[in-house]
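Example 3.2
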Amino acid sequence: EVQLVESGGGLVQAGGSLRLSCAASGFSIDDYAIGWFRQAPGKEREGVSCTSSRDSSDSYGRFVKGRFTVSSDNAKNTVYLQMNNLSPEDTAVYYCAAEGPMGHCAGSKWHYWGQGTQVTVSS
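Structure, written as tokens:
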């Protein structure tokens, strides 16, 4: 069974950092595209990042601006999102999603989703 579990969210002050984890089971992250998304109250879901071993590079949302970095640990079957220099505008529920096997970031249907983890940035 495909399962994604996010963790690492919490409360942080503006300018601080958080490291989110997306632990996958039922599949290998190396065979799937893994995306991070976020959604704040009253706003549409927004793409944060995407990584796939079958794509030439990782991709990031428009407002990331070099602050976030996605990485993978295949031994732990976990994808991480390192978020630095956070601002209150980053407050949202953050989700990871997966598509595969042989998934690509572009055009992904994102069939599998985690439950989300809350990130709150105070000013």
